[in-house]
Write a structure and sequence with these properties.
heterodimer, A: alpha/beta, Rossmann fold, four-stranded antiparallel β-sheet, 12 strands, B: 352 residues, alpha/beta, eight-stranded mixed β-sheet, 15 helices
């Protein structure tokens, strides 16, 4: 194990000072969108980040890329801390880490042909590059994502949803990054197209040795693509570990509920236990374990102290006071 | 087996007049919904699953030209005046949509919004209306229902708003609820709650439901019969158990293979190549043929036969699987009458 982590986040937090409630009774409050999380992404591997809306997964993605200043904590990319914005080191680092967004039409410029958009990053980072070389690199990356040359002069609205997402991917890949943070990259696509893009991401990883942080609420897709998975709830990681083990035997009650809630074709009408209610208000979360208000196994200890993310015997980390007895229940 | 269908659709077509040309969005839909039945409608965006029901209820804009017949308990809905449809819409047939917060009026307390539906459909006003609104809100699982009647939509979560929409839909005590992607905008745990609520209501009231969804998992767990739509046509209709175990149409098989599994070994997904054709640029013959791994010459030139397998199951394909061979061979014979029933309108023909 001498491989150095590509991306390492330690105790990362991002709080927002907001006004909460309706005028004139609003008051100042602190929204802890991300509240002390630690993650590691190895080169060429995929970390899946899952959770419901508002759990802080997208904010985490932005913090990991340095697109947002953390309130506390550090991010190291390839052993180096993230450079300050605007510096030379920052420009060098930015080339190696890229973002892919959910809505390709919103992420693309509607008034530029797609080939121009794909090549734009090259103009910024390599202004001296000869135009023949520039054109060759654009053609190469378009081929890599399965776009044909005749797509180049077209505008985003002239392409299908799947093709647009390929354009977004090509644009992210042209600088030959080592890390892609994909924020719900396939949620806006049709079912038959989702599988195409998932396969493409897997192929690109194998060919180029890319690492992904794959943010999604769709656990089926996360299982398909991830090596490790982190489950987030209200700004914290509640379970973190090797994907196969986590999906096969989820330990945290929340992970278990998330998996049970997925409708599947195979298991029809099964008797599943559902979570009650909605996620609590993130501005005013329950004391102790923030999941306790929806947890069927909550006890008085859960209201008193915040459970730490503790390692289990299989190397997985779980933030639950009763993680060990959960194992016993699962085994019984 | 001669239950009178609650809804009987025959040859329903929808053309959108776009000034320079006309685009056909629905190519003749034949569909029955039995009383109390839960029917699923699956398809990708643009396949026509929402348009089918918007057309049936006269909710499409004026530039849509609707032909064919939709009968509710024998009463024709196509081509009748809006006033007559008002007796049906919201009362006999209710509809809920994907995004509850944009379906609700943001500046009106939810109690008044439910009360409005009760007044229109059941003539309940005043204290009786308020009591019924509270009962409905309680029925859809909102705690402290009487107090929450005073809330505005923004004071509630997305899941709660969808419950309010369901309460409003139930206000007219409908015979049929059209749920158009009711949980797509919701989180997984909340989605499961809403789907369970719809099941309970259906069980208690005997109401029929059409569940429109792009998610095969959602449909598999919640309905008895499934229709698969592709490019404005029903390509397969079958009992849910049959459809998922023995999918007859290649498109259905493709959709199922493209779904990642939650257990078992991880395998590469079998993606359907290409993308859905644009409605103004449909291929000749079967619309799915260019993406189909099993297409033969006929598929590219001729409209596929609509093969009835049993009374309630059909498949629109030259080469369906899990279908009696004699039946397929019989329907593969050229049937000019059938082809004439399914005109393929091409943009070039119209603009010429």
């Amino acid at each position: 194990m001498t491989v150095r982590p590509l991306l390492e986040a330690r105790n990362l937090a991002r709080h927002f000072a907001i006004r909460h409630g309706n005028w004139p009774r609003s008051r100042k409050a602190l929204l802890r969108a991300v509240d002390g999380i630690s993650l590691t992404v190895m080169p060429g591997r995929t970390l899946g980040l899952v959770g419901e809306s508002g759990c802080g997964k997208s904010t985490t993605g932005r913090l990991l890329l340095g697109l947002m200043e953390p309130t506390a904590g550090t991010v190291r990319f390839d052993g180096q801390p993230l450079a300050r914005a605007g510096t030379t080191e920052w420009r060098a680092q930015r080339q190696l880490m890229q973002m892919v967004y959910q809505d390709p039409l919103g992420a693309l410029d509607r008034r530029l042909p797609v080939a121009k958009q794909i090549g734009e990053a090259l103009e910024i980072h390599h202004p001296a590059m000869p135009s023949a070389e520039h054109a060759r690199r654009v053609a190469e990356v378009m081929e890599a994502v399965g776009l044909q040359a005749h797509h180049g002069p077209r505008y985003p609205h002239e392409l299908s949803g799947g093709q647009r997402q390929r354009v977004v991917l090509a644009r992210a890949l042209i600088l030959e990054p080592r890390l892609l943070v994909c924020d719900e990259p396939i949620s806006a696509l049709d079912v038959s197209i989702q599988a195409q893009v998932v396969n493409l991401l897997l192929d690109l990883q194998e060919r180029l040795g890319l690492a992904y942080v794959f943010i999604s609420h769709d656990l089926r897709v996360v299982r398909q693509i991830s090596h490790e998975v982190a489950v987030m709830y209200l700004g914290r990681i509640v379970e973190y570990g090797e994907a196969e083990a986590l999906f096969h035997a989820p330990q945290h009650p929340y992970t278990r509920a998330l998996l049970a809630a997925i409708p599947t074709v195979a298991r029809r009408q099964a008797d599943i236990s559902l979570l009650e209610g909605d996620p609590p208000d993130p501005v005013d979360p329950p004391s102790g374990c923030t999941f306790r208000s929806r947890c069927s196994r909550a006890q008085s200890l859960c209201a008193q102290s915040v459970p730490a993310l503790k390692p289990l015997s299989d190397g997985r980390h779980v933030a639950c006071h009763f993680a060990d007895s959960n194992t016993a229940v699962a085994a019984a | 087996m001669t239950i009178t269908p609650l809804v009987q659709m025959r040859g329903l077509t929808v053309d959108f007049d776009q000034g320079r040309h006309v685009t056909r969005a629905l190519h003749g839909i034949d569909l029955d919904v039995a009383p109390g039945e839960a029917l699923g409608l699956v398809g990708e965006s643009g396949s026509g699953k929402s348009v089918t029901w918007l057309a049936a209820l006269g909710l499409l804009p004026g530039r849509a030209r609707i032909r064919g017949s939709v009968k509710l308990d024998g009463m024709e809905l196509i081509g009748v005046a809006g006033r007559q449809l008002d007796a049906v819409r919201g009362r006999r047939v209710a509809m809920i949509f994907q995004d509850p917060s944009s379906s609700l009026n943001p500046v009106m307390r939810i109690g008044r919004q439910i009360g409005e539906a009760l007044r229109l459909h059941r003539g309940l006003t005043g204290a009786a209306g308020e009591a019924e609104a509270g009962r409905l809100l309680d029925r859809v699982g909102i705690a402290n229902a009487r107090r929450r009647l005073q809330d505005y939509p923004h004071e509630m979560s997305g899941g709660m708003n969808q419950r309010v929409m369901i309460a409003m839909a139930l206000a007219g005590e409908p015979d049929l609820l059209i749920a158009d992607e009711p949980t797509t905008a919701l989180d997984a745990t909340v989605q499961a709650q809403i789907l369970r609520l719809l099941q309970e209501i259906r069980r208690d009231s005997g109401m029929a439901m059409v569940l429109i969804s792009h998610d095969l998992g959602v449909v598999a767990e919640n309905v008895e019969r499934v229709c698969v739509m592709y490019a404005g046509r029903l390509v397969e209709t079958a009992a849910a158990a049959h459809l998922f175990e023995r999918p007859r149409h290649p498109y259905t098989r493709g959709l199922l293979a493209a779904l990642p599994a939650l257990d078992g070994p991880r395998e590469r997904l079998a993606a359907i190549p290409g993308s859905v054709p644009e409605p103004w640029n449909l291929p000749a013959g079967c619309a799915f043929a260019p993406r189909c791994g099993e297409a033969e010459t006929a598929c590219h030139h001729m409209a596929p036969p609509d093969i009835p397998i049993t009374g309630h199951e059909r498949v629109l394909c030259f080469r369906p699987r899990y279908a009696p061979e004699a039946l397929v061979a019989h329907h593969r014979q050229p049937q000019p009458a059938n082809v004439a029933d399914m005109p393929v309108l091409r943009r070039t023909e119209i603009s010429a």
